[in-house]
Specification:
- The structure is a single chain.
- The chain has 777 residues and is α/β, with parallel strands linked by helices.
- The protein has four domains: 4-135 and 249-342, Rossmann fold (3-Layer(aba) Sandwich), CATH 3.40.50.300; 145-240, no CATH class; 362-477 and 644-776, P-loop containing nucleotide triphosphate hydrolases (Rossmann fold, 3-Layer(aba) Sandwich), CATH 3.40.50; 479-637, no CATH class.
- Helices cover 47% and strands 11% of the residues.
- It has 32 helices and 19 strands.
- It has a seven-stranded parallel sheet. The protein has a six-stranded parallel sheet with strand order 3-2-6-7-1-8, with helices on both faces. A two-stranded parallel sheet has the order 4-5.
- The model has no long low-confidence stretch (mean pLDDT 94).
């Protein structure tokens, strides 16, 4: 339609520059080639994806409806779509205004609708396929979100017959949970997570379930059969409601693709593009391969093996690393490979540090994409301040000094690095504390033993500054133990189940410790009342609900009332639930869990009332206790990344490293060792593994029954690989300043071996002595 030069000229007109040579090579590949783009951090992969899509449409003449582009998260999909449409319409406007464009081409351009390019997540694509291409007379399945899925798996799978308490199943799950089957962090929530992961991986790895059961070791026969009963009943529960979860959704689409039931969609398909391919699983790969078979293997995948973080969700990084050979086996032709190594995000000092870190461990090099170059920086990149390291004798001292630095940079006159310049926030240009983030392996504010961790101590230190700085860390505590959640939940319970009458009589499906937690909530609310710390309006409102009294003469209490009305009535008295960022996330947990209750229960999230039939009301309360209150109190429903759509600009964000994937911050603080006072075995999995973790043990159990075959690397080696990837991601998030923080025992060369501070897997610390790669502050 147009020439490449015309496309680049239009791009330059509004961006100020053309893509670099690496990006151009990827953008310009032929339509029908297989293409693997290995894109390092900050290398402009979204730019390349966007411009390749626009090149396919404007230069190659591919009809927009013939292009499907998927990415990993909803947020990333929205960004890609925004970029395709925003840039696309700007380019079209400039081309249509260009007198050098001939009339025939002008007419074609004017008729283009770039909005018809399909962009989204793999799951949204699968949803649309099952909705728009279903057999006549059938209804599309309803997608059960995470809250619904966990509710049904717990209630109809694990609680049925008290399976969750079975000793044989417990032994199997404990063995997957921790080396030697220890009890560290092992509770109901951990059990549910393991069972849900196993269920997902049965599909993600396309496991032959019957073969797995028939090949069970003697000591696991009963446990695996119970596990089979759990997933079977869970599956039936979904089917009875016309639902699928994410694993079933993708599996159903793959089956229909293989059976030719989606050929109508495939006929118009010309190109498939996939972002974040390093976090793809076998099931998803097979969907992409099936789609691309209809367009002569026109499959473009983009990713970075060094940034693969989601093994615990079933991702198999080998699929990206080995894409060329897997593509050749499927399509009988070679795929092309391009590297994007120019980092436009970070300073020279940060890029050099990240390169050195990536090459630190010899064993890690063998699992990286062959021929991968180091990250490079453009000629205009700034040297920047050196990477900094703040290590203190205790975590308390570390928190205090780190709070001082953050406050000086964002609320004061800045922080000076002797001999290397000054770090300060430019508030006149919109800079604020949201330009800084603390990245941790876990954002938890307390250890499993109840000790205060860096995220909490930093929160406390910033709160007492002259101009207090707030911290955004909704995942910092077990949600059921957060005072705000306890108090809010306690008042809801007082309204629904006055004096805990139904709860105290016993509710099937609620373990004793969960019942105790719910009573703690009520005690917490009662304490506030006794201290006079709640407004009279709240106590009167709750009393009216408890008495089933509408409070208006001539009116009767409704025979059925949705608990959402209670939530919205009570939340009025808890302003922090709607006017603070953390509170909004907690409120979202309550409303999403109630929505799950509405979809899965007989009473649909409502409380029944009939003075002549008190048993009906009690039954509805039991359901609410089991399916609404219980999961929140048990911790089986919790805050996850999906609930956190944005980060407040005026607060310091504390994130897990996994959560930071795809983000960038001008100043990034990475906690590399605030927890490690000594070389304790219980903490080795976080810093220097002695064995694999749950995902690796699960792979060993399941992959021998999949076409993937058993992993070729030991669980310990895979655990090391994953830790190096984790900190590679963390160290590559900053734009201008990177600060490593920890306590003195974790300084390089100390007695605490730690992947994040320069140790390789054979026990050599490459940063010891004079090799320190950061400036101590």
């Amino acid at each position: 339609m147009i020439e490449l030069a015309e496309l680049y000229r239009a791009v330059k007109a509004f961006r100020g520059h053309e893509p670099d040579d690496e990006q151009k090579r990827a953008i310009e590949k032929p339509v029908d080639c297989g293409l693997m783009i290995v894109a390092g951090p900050g290398s402009g992969k979204t730019t390349v994806l966007t411009l390749r899509i626009l090149k396919l449409v404007l230069v190659d003449g591919v009809p927009p409806p013939g292009i499907v582009a998927t990415t990993f998260t909803k947020k990333a999909a929205q960004e890609l779509r925004s970029r395709v449409l925003g840039w696309g319409f700007q380019i079209l406007d400039r081309l249509l205004a260009d007198s050098r464009i001939g009339p025939e081409t002008h007419e074609k351009l004017a008729g283009l609708d770039i909005n018809q390019v399909w962009t989204g997540t793999i799951d949204s694509l699968c949803e649309q396929l099952l909705r728009d291409h279903r057999p006549p007379g059938t209804q599309p399945p309803v997608l059960a979100d995470e809250f619904v899925a966990r509710t049904l798996l717990l209630r109809d799978g694990m609680f049925a017959g008290h399976r969750y308490d079975d000793d044989d199943l417990d032994a199997l799950l404990r063995a997957l949970h921790s080396e030697g089957g220890g009890g560290y962090g092992y509770n109901l929530s951990a059990k549910l997570n393991l069972v849900q992961s196993l269920w997902g991986r049965l599909f993600n790895d396309l496991v032959d379930w019957e073969h797995l059961l028939s090949q069970s070791p003697a000591d696991q026969v009963k446990a695996r059969q119970i596990l089979g009963d759990i997933v079977s009943d869970y599956h039936k529960s979904l089917q009875d409601r016309g639902m699928v979860d994410f694993a079933l959704l993708e599996f159903e689409v793959l089956q229909r693709l293989r059976n030719g039931q989606l050929d109508e969609f495939r006929q118009g398909l010309r190109v498939v593009l996939v972002d974040e391919y390093q976090d793809t699983n076998l099931l998803q790969e097979q969907i992409y391969f099936q789609l691309a078979k209809s367009c002569n293997g026109a499959l473009c995948v983009v990713g970075d093996d060094d940034q693969s973080l989601y093994r615990f969700r079933g991702a198999t990084v080998d699929l990206f690393r080995d894409f060329e050979s897997r593509y050749r086996t499927t399509y009988g032709k070679a795929a092309e490979k391009e590297f994007l190594a120019n980092n436009y995000r970070s300073t020279k000092s940060i890029i050099s540090f990240v390169n050195a870190y990536a090459g630190l461990d010899a064993g890690y090099q063998s699992v990286r994409v062959k021929g991968k170059p180091q990250l490079a920086y453009p000629s205009f990149a700034n040297d920047g301040v050196p990477v900094l390291g703040m290590f203190r004798p205790t975590v308390g001292e570390l928190a205090d000094d780190l709070a001082d630095l953050i406050y000086d940079v964002f609320r004061g006159k800045g922080f000076s690095v002797p001999g290397h310049g000054h770090i300060s926030c430019d508030s006149d240009s919109g800079g604020d504390i949201g330009d800084c983030a603390l990245l941790c392996s876990s954002p938890a504010e307390y250890s499993s033993g109840g000790k205060e961790r860096l995220p909490l101590l930093l929160r406390q230190a910033l709160a007492v500054k002259p101009r207090p700085v707030e911290v955004f860390n909704p995942r910092g505590e077990d949600i059921a133990s957060i005072p705000l959640v306890q108090n809010f939940g306690g008042f809801l319970l007082k309204a629904v189940d006055p004096d805990c009458t139904v709860l105290n009589a016993g509710v099937s499906g609620i373990p004793q410790n969960v019942s105790d937690k719910l009573r703690d909530w009520v005690d917490s609310a009662n304490t506030l009342v006794s201290l006079g710390e709640v407004p009279k309006g709240l106590t009167e409102y709750i009393a009216g609900w408890a008495a089933r009294d509408p409070g208006r003469a001539g009116y009767e209490w409704p025979k059925s009332i949705s608990i959402i009305q209670l939530i919205y009535g009570v939340v009025h008295y808890f302003p922090s639930l709607h006017n603070t960022a953390e509170g909004q996330v907690y409120l979202e947990v309550f409303t999403r869990q109630l929505a799950a209750c509405e979809q899965t229960g007989k009473f649909k999230g409502r409380m029944a009332y009939n003075a002549d039939d008190p048993g009906l009301g009690q039954a509805s309360i039991k359901e609410l206790l089991r399916d609404f209150f219980g999961p929140i109190a048990a911790g089986t429903t919790s805050v996850d990344e999906e609930l956190i759509e944005s980060f407040p600009r005026d607060q310091l964000s504390v994130l897990s490293i996994h959560q930071s994937k795809g983000l960038e911050f001008p100043l990034t603080i990475v906690d590399v060792g605030s927890d490690f006072k000594g070389n304790y075995a219980a903490q080795r999995f976080k810093r220097f593994p002695s064995d694999g973790g749950p995902p690796h043990r699960m792979e060993d159990m399941l992959r021998r029954h999949s076409s993937l075959g058993p992993p070729t690397r030991s669980p310990r080696d895979r655990a090391f690989d994953d830790l190096y990837r984790q900190f590679f991601v963390a160290f590559s998030r900053p734009q201008d300043v990177l600060i490593l923080v920890g306590i003195n025992p974790t300084l390089p060369g100390g007695n605490v071996a730690n992947v994040a501070t320069g140790w390789d897997r054979i026990g050599v610390c490459h940063w010891a002595g004079k090799n320190l790669p950061f400036t101590k502050i």
